[in-house]
Design a protein that fits this description.
The complex is a heterodimer of chains A (about 220) and B (about 260). By secondary structure, chain A is mostly helical. Helix content of chain A is about 85%, strand content about 0%. Chain A has a single domain (about 1-215), classed as MetI-like (MetI-like fold, Orthogonal Bundle), CATH 1.10.3720.10. Chain A is flat and about 75 Å long. The model of chain A has no long low-confidence stretch (mean pLDDT about 90). In chain B, the strands form 3 sheets. In chain B, strands 8-9-10-3-11-12 form a 6-stranded mixed sheet, sandwiched between helices. In chain B, α4 crosses α5. The chains are: A mainly alpha (about 220), B alpha/beta (about 260). Chains A and B meet through α5 and α6 of A and α2, β8, α3 and α5 of B.
């Protein structure tokens, strides 16, 4: 029993440290993805053709290639062109760019779901297009997109495991290192899986709450 | 002669090859009420929507209080104004839509108050007082905290009218305000509009309710195929129509 406890401490410590990195990467990449996704969705709705085509191309390329390949290109490929990113930054930018592509479609769906009369009523009331967006359209878009956004956040949290491939020091990175040094394969990976579960389960409940609230509002 | 409140000049609107308005002229003096009637697709809603530039006319001009609406005169030429300038002008014109279009994320009070707060920069407390007074006016004072989805169609439309009134508009535009309502809910909305008419508000009303148009309006325009076919006092236009097309239209409506 004592052996188990000390093993737990020895192996759990680094994994917990990795969990803080996982959380940091998830939150940062999510923030980047939300800002980018919303901006792209808005620009795509209002901009001229060549711009919307460029955005559509970006979205399709990022949605239809593995995020691992995108991370490798960013981390190993980019230095040939100029800047060398550290793993942590590369992970955030890579997942953020990928998430931006995914979320731009989510936001676009949310924006087009709003009846054109909502906008017209705001303009008729003397609101500028900006006020209309800010006070009428975005609050409604937000409510529509919150559940898919939450589901994306849960998926992202688990997908951060992939950035261990570029040596970003998150849970899986530490797990692999521990396995190499201790050969406690099963124990380490179960512990790692448990950690992911402890992070994503509460998040999933939170998303459920949002969904319930949204149904009540509709 | 004093400048009328509203002057519409040679209004044309086409959507691609579809000519919806083919040269409409009208004026409205302060405190007057004009009803626009006509068959579906005759262009009456488009005409109303051109008045506050929800649709940009293809040709012709709109003047509110003698000022070009949606345009500015630069060196004798009309130039589209910016969205910001247009918003300032639109604030003087209240519009009520067939589909109500209340904002579902705001309760009745906020639906009415948000315009004054954001457009005119009115302090929240003052805007709420105004909103509650306007909701009281449309007999919705007991529902200020309700969200739109909890209101009947007639109640939603009355809130929408309060919302337009909160702009303290010079002119009210009603775009078939009862067409989307169940028959038993039409009366409550017409009553409110009638009260506003009695108050002496200036309004242009697009409607299928011929009897109501006759009661409320002091001028009726019959629009057909994008042009005004007949117009005048309701007792002439509705009771003694001259044109065959208007007679046929009225027969159809009355039979209905």
């Amino acid at each position: 029993m004592e052996g188990f406890a000390s093993k737990l401490v020895d192996l759990g410590g680094p994994l917990l440290l990795g969990a803080t990195t996982t959380i940091a990467i998830t939150l940062s990449a999510l923030a980047l993805a939300v800002v980018l996704g919303l901006a792209l969705a808005l620009i795509r709705l209002f901009a001229i053709r060549p711009v919307t085509w460029a955005i559509a191309a970006y979205v399709e390329v990022f949605r239809n290639t593995p995020v691992l390949a995108q991370l490798f290109i960013l981390y190993f490929g980019l230095p040939y062109l100029g800047p060398k990113l550290d793993p942590f930054t590369a992970a955030i930018i890579g997942l953020g760019l990928n998430g931006g592509a995914v979320l731009s479609e989510v936001f676009r769906a949310g924006l087009v779901a709003i009846h054109h009369g909502q906008r017209e009523a705001a303009l008729a009331a003397g609101m500028t297009p900006w006020m209309t967006l800010r006070y009428i359209i975005l609050p409604q878009t937000w409510r529509i997109t919150l559940p898919p956004l939450g589901n994306y956040a849960i998926a992202l949290l688990k997908d951060t495991a992939v950035v261990s491939a570029i040596a970003a020091p998150e849970i899986m990175f530490w797990a692999r290192n521990l396995v190499t040094s201790t050969f406690e394969t099963t124990f380490v990976y179960i512990l790692a899986a448990l950690l992911y579960f402890c992070l994503s389960f509460p998040l999933a409940r939170l998303v459920e709450q949002f969904e319930r609230r949204q149904r009540a509002w509709q | 002669m004093a400048e009328p409140l509203l002057r519409v000049e040679d209004l044309h609107k086409d959507f691609g090859s579809l000519m919806v308005l083919k040269g409409v002229d009208m004026t409205l003096d302060r405190g007057h009420k004009t009803a626009v009637i006509g068959p579906s697709g005759c262009g009456k809603s488009t005409m109303l929507r051109c008045i506050n530039y929800m649709e940009v006319p293809s040709r012709g001009h709109v003047y509110l209080d003698g000022e070009p609406f949606g345009e500015r005169l630069v060196d004798g030429k009309f130039v589209r104004m910016s969205e910001k300038e247009l918003a300032l002008q639109r604030a003087h014109v209240g519009m009520v839509f067939q589909g109500f279009y209340l904002w579902p994320h705001l309760n009745a009070r906020d639906n009415v108050a948000i315009g004054p707060m954001k457009v005119r920069g009115m302090p929240k407390r003052e805007a709420y007082e105004l909103a509650e007074a306007m909701l009281e006016k449309v007999h919705m004072g007991h529902k200020v905290d309700e969200f739109p989805e909890r209101l009947s169609g007639g109640q939603q439309q009355r809130v929408a009218i309060a919302r337009a009134l909160s702009q303290q508009p010079k002119l009210m535009l009603f775009d078939e305000p009862t067409s989307a309502l169940d028959p038993e809910l039409i009366g409550e909305v017409l009553n409110v509009i009638h009260e506003l008419a009695v108050e002496g508000r200036s309004m242009v009303l697009v409607t299928h309710e011929i009897r109501f148009a006759r009661d409320v309006a002091d001028h009726v325009i019959f629009l057909h195929d994008g042009v005004i076919v007949e117009q005048g006092p309701p007792d002439d236009v509705i009771a003694h129509p001259e044109h065959e097309r208007l007679r046929a239209f009225l027969r159809q409506i009355m039979d209905h």
